[in-house]
Amino acid sequence: MTRTLTQLELLTELEPVAEQNLNRHLSIAKNWHPHDYVPWDQGRNFAEMGGIDWEPAQSQLSELAKAAMVTNLLTEDNLPSYHRLIAESFSQDGAWGTWVGRWTAEENRHGTVMRDYLVVTRGVDPVALEHARLVCMTAGVQHPTGVDDNGFLPGVAYVTFQELATRVSHRNTGRVCNDAVADRMLQRISADENLHMVFYRNLCGAAIDLAPDQALLAISAIIRNFQMPGAGMPNWRRNSVLMAKHGIYDLRQHLEEVITPVLRKWNIFERNDFGARGEQAREELGLFLEQLGKDVLKFEEQRDRALAREAHKRERQEA
Ligand SMILES: [Fe+2]
Ligand SMILES: [Fe+2]
Known about the structure:
Homodimer. This is Acyl-ACP desaturase. The chain has 319 residues and is mostly helical. Helices cover 71% and strands 0% of the residues. It is built from eleven helices and no strands. Helix 3 packs antiparallel against helix 6 (152-176), helix 6 packs across helix 10 (251-265) and helix 7 runs antiparallel to helix 8. The longest helix has 43 residues, at 276-318. The radius of gyration is 21 Å and the shape is globular. The protein starts with 6 loop residues before the first helix and ends with a helix. Bound molecules: fe (ii) ion (FE2) (2 copies). Residues 107, 163, 192-193, 196 line the site of one fe (ii) ion. The site of one fe (ii) ion has 5 residues, from helix 7.
């Protein structure tokens, strides 16, 4: 049986891979500027400075677009919690420390540009948004990984899936905003999330090669307990249901666009370097994914029925 590696051994062994991927990231990451993505000419003063305060009629966004924008923005706002998670489960030294700092700096742009856009275009109530931010950041994200272990392996597995999930969510939010400016901004953010995902996916992949059983146990626990980072924020249930109902982030996307492609990239179901513990974890993971596939169908049946009921109700109201 293979020995379980300590946190320090994992980080030391994987530091060259972190350095290589950090350099790769720096060579391809685009140095974009939030101010280039905001339509400043649409802006005007609020009452405090002689203008008028926000009113619902000023927003061009649908209820769905508003819910998705706010959910995604509050998720970005919780960056300090995520910084803490990554800083604790990675190392502050060498390439690890540089990555954590750089990643945090890049992520901060996402919240900046989305808030500027929403305030300038009057897309949502800025007072309610600020209130939600305070509630959200005060609570912070306690155990985002869903597992009681703040080690490197669960941490890197979680952020791999989470970056990809936010990529999907931002990209699909852009599509429902019905505004080319918002779409361009959210595509830009999605491209960042994808590069972040690649870094974490490569590191987690190298960890599987290094300690296959140990890594798979962590990955499997993360997949089985996965929660979107927004869980627990104000109106989370209402907003996440709305987003799932309209294909911004639903169970099929979670399974087919987030979980499956990453597991395929790691060759989880084809590898032959697992020991007994790894084999068992793989079997359990396989069963879990099979069940998730069934849950997808069940969810979609319910969703189709609910959407049909709503359409029917609308028709009757219009008649
Ligand atoms: Fe982000
Ligand atoms: Fe990201």
